[in-house]
Design goal:
By secondary structure, the chain is an alpha/beta fold. The protein has a domain at about 5-260 and about 460-480: Amidase signature (AS) domain (Amidase signature (AS) enzymes), CATH 3.90.1300. The chain contains 15 helices and eleven strands. α4 links the parallel β2 (about 75-80) and β3.
Length: about 475
Amino acid sequence: MNLTELTLTELRTALRRGETSSVAATQAILDRIVEQDNEIKSYLTITDEMALEQAAAADRRRANGEDGPLLGVPIAVKDIIATKGAPTTAGSKILEGFIPPYDAFVVQKLKEAGAVILGKTNTDEFAMGSSTENSGYFTTRNPWDLTRVPGGSSGGSAAAVAAKMAYAALGTDTGGSVRQPASFCGVVGLRPTYGRISRWGVIAFASSLDQVGMFGRTVMDTAVLFQAVAGYDKRDSTSLNIPVPDAAAALTGDIKGLRVGAPKEYFIEGIESEVETAVRAAIAQLEKLGAETVEISLPHTQYALPVYYLIAPAEASANLARYDGVRYGPRVEGADMIDSVKQTRALFGPEVKRRIMLGTYALSAGYYDAYYGRALKVRTLIKNDFKTAFEQVDVIAAPTSPTTAFKIGERADDPLSMYLADVFTLSVNLSASCGLSIPCGFDSKGLPIGLQLIGDTLQEATVLNAAYAYEQAARWDQQRLETAV
């Protein structure tokens, strides 16, 4: 049995049957990380000793008759999520060496479920980016083509799952940072409804947009991880105190009568022809499975990009004001306190500085109403578009990204071109909906293409079931990386 080839669901079954152990599976993954990650660079920190200790503890629990949703399953965690006793840097030099004295809510939930935590994955600095090139440490590479980006900001998590260096992984999605890298790396990526999962212990970027998400090799794997970490937490004022659905049980594959919306604004000039062809073919496949396609309009989609890049930087400007070298992270000594703060904040990378300046300007006296205030009003219009659409349809189907993975460095000097990589994902965050990316084919270069399925607020089970039905019919999940990079 090649343990690294198993899906999370297959590994759970093997563990429950006694066909393997958590220690064996964890060691197999750690060995693969040693073999592969010097090239891919998906991990910032590998907690190998801690992981093997957790695996041994999981095996003891199982021997005593215990079980859990993720008992003994090795999982990776994006390095913007706090982990007790392990570095959490948010991909930034300004947090280099910071080791939290606590676990984030989602890490607590992982441990309660019995998961083994492999380490912390690379991210664009403070989750600000679409390619993982903005990490303060190094660029992660796409396992399908090492000359290309894995997407971002959760590129490390997506690459680790795609390259079989984790059975699943946690990421965060502020404007598409789970779905877009899932598309680029050919895995499943879910962005749940805002508030469905507590953000306590997640380093803040844009507080009204941030949401923990997850990656899996299959829809079932993703559903299992979602169910394990979702839930209410009183420490997060935005956390929703509602029951978590049995997402795995909802995966029946029956979508007869499902109304699928095809938004005309998502099939626009600039989308690669192979991406559009693959997505339209996926929608046709959903029709064959019994779904009904309805053309819809989301008229304010064109404003999502400028609205996002006013709201997100404004909130980032406020959130990142706390990094002054006084409370945590490195402190650069200066001539006086003000100079020391200046020198410390110079540790921020170029993209973070750009967004702080944009946000500070948008919030400044005389400009607040003209920029940030107006953006909030247009955000409401975008939200109303989705509300109207979901009165007509159950899910919305669209491309995840207008292109497949682009070359490393190709957009480094063109921020607008980089921002456009998320043009199809931003609206979901602005509307507080849920969304998922699932592989729907490959382009002529052999790069994965992602289908995005968007659901109404709290409709993760509907989205996951639609994705599951498509996955079982199309079987793109079986076309994984066949050879070592």
